[in-house]
Amino acid sequence: MFSQVILALIIIFLAGNLYYFFTNKSFKKSYFNKALFYKLFIVLTGITFGFALLYYMLSLNGPVLVYADPAGSQPAEHSFRTYLYFSGETILSVGYGDIVPLGIARPLSLIEAAIGVLLPTAYFMRAFGSNKHEDDNDDKDDDN
């Protein structure tokens, strides 16, 4: 029961990070925006830690990660560092292949990898979109 509550809180935390990123904010006129960059960094770091906690909590019921060894796979070390490492390499789409997910961790790692690819894309779209919107408003002001 306790682990289910923790899992629900972790999922709410991850959803909150994604919602925070997509909330409508205005930024200065610049193609590189420090505020938006820091926001992206904080959100990606939060999601990395959130998924590491999720993997850690899921591992309490049995192994969710194994070492990929040609001689035979063995369960990954049950430590938060291991899960944080796996989460970090997954969100950055590095995927060294030294640790492989099992069971429910497989689709979760795919979701995490998709978030790791799509959030920076959304960052660039938002940065260029907000500049285009500001440029359009500047053009309207110049006409008056």
Descriptive key words:
three-stranded antiparallel sheet, 6% strand, mainly alpha, 144 residues, 3 strands
Give the end-to-end Cα distance, rounded to a whole number of Å. Answer: 64 Å
- Rg is 19 Å
What is the quaternary state of this protein? single chain
Number of helices: 4
In total, the number of strands is: 3
Mean pLDDT: 84
Low-confidence stretches: none
Characterize the largest beta sheet: strand count, sense, and whether it forms a barrel.
3 strands, antiparallel
Q: What percent strand?
A: 5-15%
Spatial sequence of strands, sheet with the most strands: 2-1-3
Principal-axis shape: globular
In short:
This protein has 144 residues and is mostly helical. It has helices at 2-22, 34-58, 80-91, 105-143; strands at residues 65-67, 74-75, 99-101.
Question: What can you see in these coordinates?
Answer:
Helix 1 runs antiparallel to helix 2 (34-58), helix 2 packs across helix 3 and helix 2 (34-58) packs antiparallel against helix 4 (105-143). Strands 2-1-3 form a three-stranded antiparallel beta sheet. The chain is globular, with a radius of gyration of 19 Å. The longest helix has 39 residues, at 105-143. With 144 residues, it is mainly α. The protein is built from four helices and three strands; from the N terminus they run ααββαβα. Strand 1 (65-67) and strand 2 (74-75) form a beta hairpin.
